[in-house]
Amino acid sequence: MRLRTRGRWGVQAGIMAGMAVAAAVFALDLARSEPLATPLFLSQWALESLGPGQEGEIVQTLSGLSLGGRLAFFTGLHLAVFALIGMLAAALANLFHVRWTYRTGAAVGLGLGILLWSGASRLGTSWLTGAGLSAEVVVGASVIGGAVLGWHLRLCHLDAEEAPPTRRHAA
Predict the structure, then answer these.
(1) What pLDDT digit, counting tens, does each position of 108-149 carry?
(2) pLDDT tens-digit profile of 77-101?
């Protein structure tokens, strides 16, 4: 398996995992009758936390965006981070010859969710609770994202091993 192909599969798996996490948080927001509250709150918190002394052109541009613009930027950033996580997962699988499954991904998601909550809570939990995110939500969404990532990487691996070789016929 070429690393380049694995990287492409990792990006796909990461984006799918990011979409699964976003869907889980969106479902939670819908259950609270506040659709899109979490990503809008987190994008606003991120802009405000930079402070007036650290504002550059990018921060000023983002501050001037509409709610839809901020949501689009935050979603793009979210999916880009997950694409990087997927690439890393695919590269590690290639390096250590790990066969991904949804269980493997869920276990990795559990570990990452715990690390994420621990690291994020060191900044203070007011921004997490303001977004309606508890430890259970963060860890649960991470497990869902990890399971989707592992499931997709497993499907890609099976496709590569079981697909019959293609032949090119000369015309």
Answers:
(1) 999 988 998 888 777 776 666 667 778 888 899 999 999 999
(2) 889 999 999 999 888 887 887 788 8
Distance (Å, whole) CA 44 – CA 23: 20
Cα separation of 3 and 87, whole Å?
10
Amino acid at 103: R
Quick one: DSSP state of residue 125?
S
CA–CA distance, 96 with 99 (Å, rounded to integer): 9
In terms of Cβ atoms closer than 10 Å to its own Cβ (0-12, 13-18, 19+), residue 164 is exposed
Q: What's the chain's Rg over C-alpha atoms?
A: 19
Burial class (CB in 10 A: 0-12, 13-18, 19+), 98: middle
Q: Are 98 and 1 in contact (CB under 8 A)?
A: no
Distance CA 28, CA 149 (A): 21
Q: Residue 113 to residues 63, 104, 118, 141: CA-CA distances in angstroms?
A: 29, 14, 8, 8
